[in-house]
Each structure stands twice: as structure tokens, then as C-alpha cells.
Amino acid sequence: MTQEIIQPIATFIAAEILKQPKRSIQPAEALISSGLIDSFSLVDLGLFVEETFGVRIEDTELNAETFDTLEQLARLIQSRQ
Prior knowledge:
Layout: H1 3-17, H2 39-53, H3 64-67, H4 70-80
């Protein structure tokens, strides 16, 4: 997965969602299924992805199947660009 996609998302999650800007999030780390991100934060993350990468994320895609790791999210973004 490209760092150009993963790094900005990891930075956003750490700084804006977790309020821990120094936290490192690994590309394969579970975000939703581990409880790191809740459903409210998932909406914020979806909006960030849409605005930053110019892709459309359907509401039905805001789930652990699509958004559980940075790798999954990067694949989704790449498929839409």
C-alpha cells in the first residue's frame, strides 16, 4: 500500500480522533474491530477520506469489512481514484 494514502489517514486518526498525535498506527492494525474507532469517529474518518482523496464513500461502506485497517482503506481509495 502506498504511504501517500496510509500516512495522512494514520496521522488524522491519531491526532483528530484519538487525540494522541504521537501515536503510531500500523497499516494492518485493526481500527474498528479492536474498538480503537467508534461509529461516530468512523463518519469523521469517511468525510476526511472523501475530502482528502476526492473519492466517494457510501454510508454502507462505513464498517469493519471496508474500514478496519489502513491497508483496507488504502485499497478502497486506490480502486476509486
